[in-house]
Amino acid sequence: MRIPPEHPRYASLMQRERLVRGFEAGMTVLQGLIAHGRGEAFDYLLGEKTTPLAAAAIRAGAAMLMLARKPVISVNGNTAVLCPEELARLGRALNAPLEVNLFYRSEERARRIAEHLRSAGAERVLWRADAEIEGLESERRKVSSSGIYASDVVLVAVEDGDRTGALKRLGKKVVAIDLNPLSRTAQEADVTIVDEVTRALPLLTAQVHSMQRLSAEELEEIARFDNAENLRGVLEFMAERLLELSRTCPGKG
Ligand code: ATP
């Protein structure tokens, strides 16, 4: 289907097209399309823009990833088809591998996603699972021993809460990109970037580049972040925006 660029919802419709094509190519799953819809609803509440609160979380998250000994970027079917080039760019900026981690895992699906990421420019892609995260029932427990298993900081996006909790229990730090400030992932991560993943990733990469010259002490200061306070701020932002809209909504008599 051809979507005209002047369509008011062009970006959103293009994303849906990408996910549908990803499904046809065996990379996204139907459940992933539903999860995207939940994200879209929250993005509507944010006004489909990166808020100053998200920008602050991006800065803290970038610093946390830069301070990591072994950072890993976890990739699932949705993020792989929505923004493969941006994931590859962030991997290069952080000198970090991308690791394919799937809730509905099959070796074939993981391999296809890895190939897709490599063809988008990713240099290091891990997709073979040879270790398991304890305390996790889902297929997401299957990880690479040289990737997520050995990591100290993991970036996750469009993620379910079970794995974030399991990673935290293993003592890892989690930077999450999640449009739902109420999700378990958002609540449990060390830094939650409440923003749409395709908007947040380029900003995260730019932030990493712009902080290259900072010392470890300076980065540590920036990585000190009150996630609960930021999430409260996001909820207030959404609530105030809805109140404002309720006053100006044309349907109001
Ligand atoms: P949790 O288990 O953490 O409570 P959940 O049950 O909502 O969360 P999923 O259904 O797996 O978990 O959904 C993934 C999350 O990703 C949702 O919170 C959704 O809002 C978010 N999400 C979906 N699409 C995007 C996107 N494009 N960018 C950022 N976040 C997204």
CATH topology: Rossmann fold
* Total tally of structural domains: 1
Question: What is the name of the CATH class?
Answer: Alpha Beta
DSSP strand count: 8
So what's the overall shape? globular
| Beta-strand content | 5-15%
Give the helices and strands as they follow along the chain.
Answer: HHHEHHEHEEEEHEHEHHH
- What's the N-to-C terminus distance? 39 Å
Helical proportion? Answer: 40-55%
Please tell me about this protein's structure:
The protein is of the alpha/beta class. It has one domain: Phosphopantoate/pantothenate synthetase (Rossmann fold, 3-Layer(aba) Sandwich), CATH 3.40.50. 54% of the residues lie in helices and 11% in strands. It contains eleven helices and eight strands. It has a six-stranded parallel sheet with strand order 3-2-1-6-7-8, sandwiched between helices. Helix 3 packs across helix 9, helix 3 (52-67) crosses helix 10 and helix 5 (84-94) runs parallel beside helix 9 (197-210). The model has no long low-confidence stretch (mean pLDDT 95). Bound molecules: adenosine-5'-triphosphate. Adenosine-5'-triphosphate binds next to helix 2 and helix 8.
